[in-house]
Amino acid sequence: MSKVRVRFAPSPTGPLHLGGVRTALYDYLFAKNKGGDFVLRIEDTDTTRYVEGAEDYIMEALEWCGIIPDESPKHGGPYAPYRQSERRAIYNQYTEQILKTDYAYIAFDTPEELETIRKEYEAKGEVFAYNNYTRNRLRNSLTLPEEEVKKLLAENTPYVVRFKMPVDRILTLEDIIRGTFSVNTDTLDDKVLVKNDGMPTYHFANIIDDHEMKISHVIRGEEWLPSLGLHILLYEAMGWEAPQFAHLSLILKPEGKGKLSKRDGDKFGFPVFPLNFTDPATGSVSKGYREEGYFPESFINFLTLLGWSPSEDKEILSLEEMIQEFDLYKVHKAGARFSKEKAEWFNQQYLQKKTNEELLPLLKDLSEVQATNLSDETLLTIISLMKERATFVKDIYSNGTFFFEAPKSYDEKALKKAWNADTTQHLSALCDVLEQTDFSADALKNAIHTFAESQSLGMGKVMMPLRLTLVGELKGPDVPDILAILGKAESLARIKNAINHIS
Ligand code: GLU
Questions:
Q1: Which of 12, 172, 225, 386 sees the fewest Cβ atoms within 10 Å?
Q2: What is the distance between the alpha carbons of residues 472 and 481, in angstroms, rounded to a whole number?
Q3: Residue 41's pLDDT is what?
């Protein structure tokens, strides 16, 4: 069997949607599982939809995910160029070839003429299609006398090349995920293969490149399933062997119905793109998983499991394990429902697996933390105390802001619960004890215990108000741990400040 070669073929029309990243992932996992090649090809023949920066975005997103192409516009390769806009000469030669067969013809109908016909159909309540019924009444090389066609061409009249859909043929199509199904060619129209500027459309360029680049498997989104019949016939027309096809189902909205959209993300507060994207036309920024604080490992882990499950229903898988276990035949036929909670759960799992030393530079990357100048040793202790309850690195900061700055106010409810007439007096006495105590968590714990006993106070009577003075509310890790991190001077200042403030 020839080598497995799989391509991801995005059009640079904007940021990559989650569904696109998942397609790239499955392309990559399948290729690597089979010891094959993963190719990135940029399909930019439609200049009207080109978006500045989109190609770089796609490259950067794949790199962030750890999906590195073997061949691409950036990496080069034996079938370069990998950008369709640079492959015009290759396409020209195949345009000539297909026009010599009975599978293509030249059409001179102007956009205005077609628009008029479309409107006439609409007025009758019908939909116009350029197909095997209508083509015999339109202005093309099938209806016009040969002399006329020659004359129009000699006069440089603009034309397009269309596919001549065979009449009433049943096509039997195979899809690795969906099995076998049939289509009657009468339901398909005569798609434009080459536009009037000489550039091929998606359909023609796509099959030429898949053939030229020796692609063995086409794994892509289900929105391309209706094009499969045309593509198979194009291979037939060119006399080429077609690759195998697999069409992936959609990623669905959290409620289960319909394609996950950017609007769902905005509504429920999660990104639908891997990285932030700034629209060059409007300047508006769409949020990305990277900037939200997701680890790339957890991002690709949850994305891979949206539509495929490994044999033992294992959930946490490294990229290596995904490659080992990936099986295209086990990709689900039904759409996969997106869940923000599940995405967060994965990140939380990955965060717990990281060592404090691994988390340290990520915490120090946060601007809020950079502003504070705490030592690495202190930050490591904070990480060890706060990690367990964190989903993202930023939670270590936001759940523990009191480590970085003194409380600006005291929670009303907590005050009612923790503070009474005697509290000021107890805390003042405790301050005297703390002045004499070594500020290690153990020593502090003992000192507070002994103090509470000597005053015949329950531990809660001391710990709760003490916590309130340090944190501003009744949350956080053990009080002696907080005291030890803040140090003697800061702790005593906070306690005294609270006494003044609250009394
Ligand atoms: N350029 C197409 C897209 O953006 C690729 C479809 C395919 O993989 O054949 O989705």
A1: 172
A2: 16
A3: 98
Annotation says 340 is catalytic = no
Q: Among 262, 340, 417, 445, which one carries the catalytic annotation? A: 262
Tokens of residue 326, six digits: 């990936």
Q: What is the dihedral of CA 297, 300, 301, 302, to 10 degrees?
A: 130
- What number of CA atoms fall less than 13 Å from residue 449's CA on the CB side? 7
The one-letter amino acid code at 31 reads: A
Cβ neighbours of residue 2 under 8 Å, at least 6 residues apart? 214, 216
The answer to whether the CB of 206 is under 6 A from ligand 1 is yes
SS3 244: strand
Whether residue 178 contacts residue 335, with contact meaning beta carbons closer than 8 Å, is answered with: no
What's the whole-number mean pLDDT along residues 480-503?
A: 95
Average of per-residue pLDDT across 184-211: 97
Q: Which atom of ligand 1 is nearest to the CA of 223?
A: 10
- pTM for this structure? 0.93
CB 26 within 8 A of CB 331: yes
Give the contacts of 398 (CB within 8 A, at least 6 positions apart).
Answer: none
27 pocket-lining for ligand 1 (C-beta < 6 Å): no
Distance 89 CA to ligand 1 centre (A): 21
> Tokens in use for 271?
């990104």
